[in-house]
Amino acid sequence: MISTPKGVLALLLSVNILNYVDRQIVYALLPLISADLKLTDAQAGSLASAFMIVYMLAAPPIAWIADSRGRKPWIAGGVAIWSVATGAAALAGGYLSLFLSRTAVGIGEACYGAISPSFVAERFPSEKRGSALAIFSLAIPVGSALGYAGGGMLGEAIGWRHSFWAVGLPGLILAGLCLLLPDDAPHAATPPPVEGYREVWSVPTFRMITFAGAGMTFALGGFAVWMPTFFHRNFGLSVGDAGLRFGAVTVAAGLAGSLLGGWLSDRLRRSDPTADLLVSGFGLLLGMPLAAAAIAAPTLGASIACLFLAEMMLFLNMGPLNAAIVSVIRIEKRSMAFAANIFVIHLLGDAASPALIGWGSDHFGLTRSLLAACLALGVGGGVCLAARKGFGADAERALA
User: Fold this and answer.
1) What is the pLDDT of residue 188?
2) Residue 257 to residues 76, 286, 312, 318, 389: CA-CA distances in angstroms?
3) Which of 37, 94, 276, 344 is the most buried (most CB within 10 A)?
4) pLDDT tens digits for 134-186?
């Protein structure tokens, strides 16, 4: 069963959900960890930076090795590494050991994040690729919600140390199952790393897709950090209630938007080969005024309703944009393309936006700062639609 396309998708979707659970659970457990290990806020915040920086930097070299030597061992190995590292956090005696465990999680997840999307995509024909990758991307809202909500409940029930064991150990089982994935022969034509990444970046459509993704990541990353605070300050919600409402909206909108985006792109691709970019671009453009309306809404109900619609529009591109990357990049460089995409969208996106929005909030107020962040969605949508012009030529070169 695992060797079939649907079996591959089911297994790697399960792994991807655990990926986001293990990534986010530390933030749900942070109050308990900080109290026990006596961490400062700066130390606690640096745990997120440790993960993201290592994740960004590790993805490009790992992707090149995997493309040149075969991807299956790196998928299984990456799952094992981050699962052991997650469990090892339970043994942390202080800040340094916890910091090192989070960097190791970043290495393991870089193996998986850079390699698995192309591994899934290549099992499906182009007319079904958008839906397959949309289903694969459901892990983002589902896994994140489980990490936040489940992590908090586990922490209260069994303590933060046992919680890390509880989410780390299942990953070792999934890592073993990943060894049963179809064999993935190395690509003999994979170029040297510097040359390979130069070739990937030289594809105009890929560059534009990546910049469009950075625009979305900038806004969504900022919203993820600051919208609960916005609800708390503007509508008087408790901190817990604000986080719960934002998480619930994000999960519901993520599921609806991801599935709708995959279905739409596959359906429209029958008559328009640029359907992936069309759906993604209009989703970002429609999401911009809806996000602004959520921030400017006079009541909590109106704000949540607009936020749901905005996030649903933004999540439309989760499958289609990845499918577009597969279409314009040669098979021997696809993992490298996803690694380059990961690096740029996080570097220009959520690695920067929370701090910039915070700075804007200090000087102009949180509402104005969040409204300004919405502009990134319009830029991303415009870039995405502009990428349609050269898509056909780049797609043909990828197949030549």
Assistant:
1) 60
2) 29, 13, 4, 8, 25
3) 276
4) 899 888 888 888 887 777 778 888 988 999 999 999 999 999 999 999 877 66
Helix (H, G, I), strand (E, B) or coil at 231: helix
Tell me the DSSP string of 162-215: HHHHHHHHHHHHHHHHHTTSPP----TTPPPHHHHHHHHHT-HHHHHHHHHHHH
**Token pair 């979305």 in the structure block, residue:** 216
CA distances for 138 relative to 135, 358, 361, angstroms: 5, 29, 31
Paired tokens of 298: 């006079």
Q: Rounded to whole angstroms, how far apart are CA atoms 78 and 210?
A: 24
Place of tokens 């990546």: 210
What domains can be seen in the chain, in order of their start residue? 1-182 (1.20.1250.20), 191-400 (1.20.1250.20)
pTM for this model (two decimals): 0.80
d(CA 290, CA 278): 19
Identity of the amino acid at 191: P
